[in-house]
Each structure stands twice: as structure tokens, then as C-alpha cells.
Amino acid sequence: IHQLARAEEMRLAREEVARQYREELAAIEELELPPNPPDRIHAWHLFPIRLRLERLSVDRNRFMEELKKAGVGCSVHWRPLHLHPYYTKTFGWRKADLPVATALWPRLVSMPIFPGMRQDEIGTVVRAVVALCRRHRRRPGRR
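Above: the chain's sequence. Below: its structure in C-alpha cell form.
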């Protein structure tokens, strides 16, 4: 309840972090950044990047391990419901039942974003992501 009075202030602070991420990471071809339609107000409670795995020589889990080794906390904030054991056992859902969510899931990484995030922290995240993408960039003609 105490934070409700500061909700917009905190949203604006996250929006600024998101703006910087989008600006600094826009040219990285190994990433797909979250959309930011101009006619919408985004909460930016998460900043999920999508790895373009066809352009990288590592999978999402290795990418995250290396980010964490570089001092960047990251995570995956959701698992498609049809991939949870309860739903597969109870309803018999399969990966093929929801192909878009199935394809998206192994590409998602949520980057750190919070009000009060300092410039040096943002810089650490950006440098680590850029370095990882460069190091693991798939060379043309190689699989």
C-alpha cells in the first residue's frame, strides 16, 4: 500500500531503464527486444529479451549461466502452462498443442529492471549481453 503513492514514479524509473536497454541493445542482431508501441503505457515490470538462437552458438540456459558469471542476475519468469507437468498429466497437453508458446519459451530471458537501477548496473548488463552475443555469434555457414 505504501508503494501505491509512488507507483507512477517507479514505473517511470523502470521505463527509463527499458529505454536505455532498447537504445543500447537495438543493433544486436542476436536479440529480439520487447515491443514498445507508442500508443501504450508499459509497466516494464519485466524486460524479456528473446534470443535469436539460430544466430547464437549457445542455448538459453548457457546464455543465462554466462550472464550470471558476469554478475548479471537474470531469470525466466514464466513457463507455458501446457509445459507444466500438472497440465501434461491432467489434460494430456503436448508441445505441439501450442506451438507459438513452445517455440518462444526456450528463447526468453528476463533482464534485471527495477526502480533505482544505477547507470553502472545498466552498463554492466548491457556490456555483458553484448559481449556474450559477440562471443557466441554463429558464423555464416556453421551450425
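The mean pLDDT is 94.
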